[in-house]
């Protein structure tokens, strides 16, 4: 390929319009609201496939042929919510130098910025971690860009919106 042809191709590629990006910019730490009722400081983790929340499982039971789970969540301010949700599936979580664990996964409404989505969240034991909630790519995808140098750049404001699928 001649240099003049390569230069022409280069400028042709540059002239193609970029797709519109409607993403908000999130920091590595953001305030989120879970199920329109309890707020958390959540760590934004682009390396995690799915979101996770610290939960104490209180009981498991069956309702209408489905497995349900009752669990307790608590934010750093001591606000507690007891939720009951059907189990969507169990996630196999790989761990460094330990056997994998299987965690129950439920659907929760999460609001961050002005985006409210119902996503799969695995119920974990995150008591030893500073942040009780981790937001993974299943929530971020298509809606957020992450600026690792900033935090708390968004205000959770989803009071009137319906959750997206």
What can you see in these coordinates?
This protein is mainly beta and about 160 residues long. It has two helices and twelve strands. The strands form three sheets. It has a six-stranded mixed β-barrel. A hairpin with a 2-residue loop joins β9 and β10. The protein is globular.
In brief:
With 165 residues, the chain is mainly β.
List the helices and strands and how they pair.
Layout: H1 3-14, E1 24-27, E2 29-34, E3 38-44, E4 51-54, E5 56-63, E6 66-74, E7 80-86, E8 89-95, E9 98-112, E10 115-124, E11 133-135, H2 137-140, E12 144-147
Parallel strand pairs: 1-12, 3-11, 4-10
Antiparallel strand pairs: 2-3, 2-9, 4-11, 5-6, 6-7, 8-9, 9-10
| Overall helicity | under 10%
Cα shape: globular
Could you give a short account of the major beta sheet? 6 strands, mixed, barrel
Estimated share of beta-strand residues: over 45%
Please report the total strand number as a whole number. Answer: 12
What is the terminal separation in angstroms?
Answer: 47 Å
Please, how many helices? 2
Radius of gyration: 20 Å
The topology string of helices and strands comes to: HEEEEEEEEEEEHE
Structural class: mainly beta
Low-confidence stretches: none
Major sheet: arrangement of strands: 2-3-11-4-10-9
Mean pLDDT: 85
């Amino acid at each position: 390929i001649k240099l003049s042809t390569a230069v022409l191709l280069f400028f042709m590629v540059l002239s193609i319009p970029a797709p519109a990006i409607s993403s908000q910019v999130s920091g590595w730490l953001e305030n989120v609201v879970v199920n329109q009722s309890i707020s958390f400081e959540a760590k934004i983790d682009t390396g995690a496939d799915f979101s996770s929340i610290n939960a104490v499982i209180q009981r498991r039971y069956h309702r209408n042929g489905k497995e349900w789970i009752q669990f307790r969540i608590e934010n750093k301010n001591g606000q507690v919510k007891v939720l009951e949700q059907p189990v969507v599936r169990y996630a196999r979580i790989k761990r460094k130098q330990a056997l994998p664990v299987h965690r129950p996964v439920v659907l929760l409404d999460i609001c961050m910025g002005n985006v409210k989505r119902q996503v799969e969240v695995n119920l974990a034991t995150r008591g030893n971690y500073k942040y009780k909630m981790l937001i993974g790519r299943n929530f971020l995808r298509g809606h957020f860009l992450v600026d690792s140098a900033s935090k708390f750049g968004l205000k959770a404001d989803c009071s009137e919106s319906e959750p997206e699928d």
